[in-house]
Amino acid sequence: MQKKIIIFISIFIVLFTVDQSIKNIFVNGFGIDGECISLVLAYNKGVAFSMFAFLEGNLKYIQIAMLIAGIIYLFSNKEIFNSYYIPAAILISGGVSNIYDRFIHEGVVDYVYWHCGFDFAIFNLADVLIDIAVVLMIYINYKNEKMKEKLA
Hints:
The protein is globular. Helix 1 packs parallel to helix 3 (78-105), helix 2 (59-76) runs antiparallel to helix 3 (78-105) and helix 3 packs antiparallel against helix 4 (125-151). The chain contains four helices and three strands, in the order H-E-H-H-E-E-H. Strand 2 (108-114) and strand 3 (122-123) form a beta hairpin. It has helices at 2-27, 59-76, 78-105, 125-151, and strands at 37-44, 108-114, 122-123. By secondary structure, it is mainly alpha-helical. It has one domain (2-151). It is 65% helix and 11% strand. It has a three-stranded antiparallel beta sheet with strand order 1-2-3.
């Protein structure tokens, strides 16, 4: 378990650092306007698609409470930690990075804007990491369930 905790922390630190470094580039003025994808700075005061923006400054505290609850659950259930420590580290790094933005920039730093054929929500690497983590968790759960069916 100790080795998995070290891997968990390492993944978290690397991904958090990479995400914050990229966001810093955009905060400092970088931007490219493309035909289909633009890399432009935007501050999201809500969550996905700017939902719950009306919660303003309170949103970050709600997210912290949810994140802490998830971390407590993860570390108090060794079996779950052992199965999901890699996607959990990915998910938590993205979540903490976006929450950090709310304290530093009063909104999440978004910068990838898809506008080819239709306008899509503007997003960042942390959002992608969270999506990847969820897909990995679903895959691991599916794989574990198939293994249980084989053994039964």
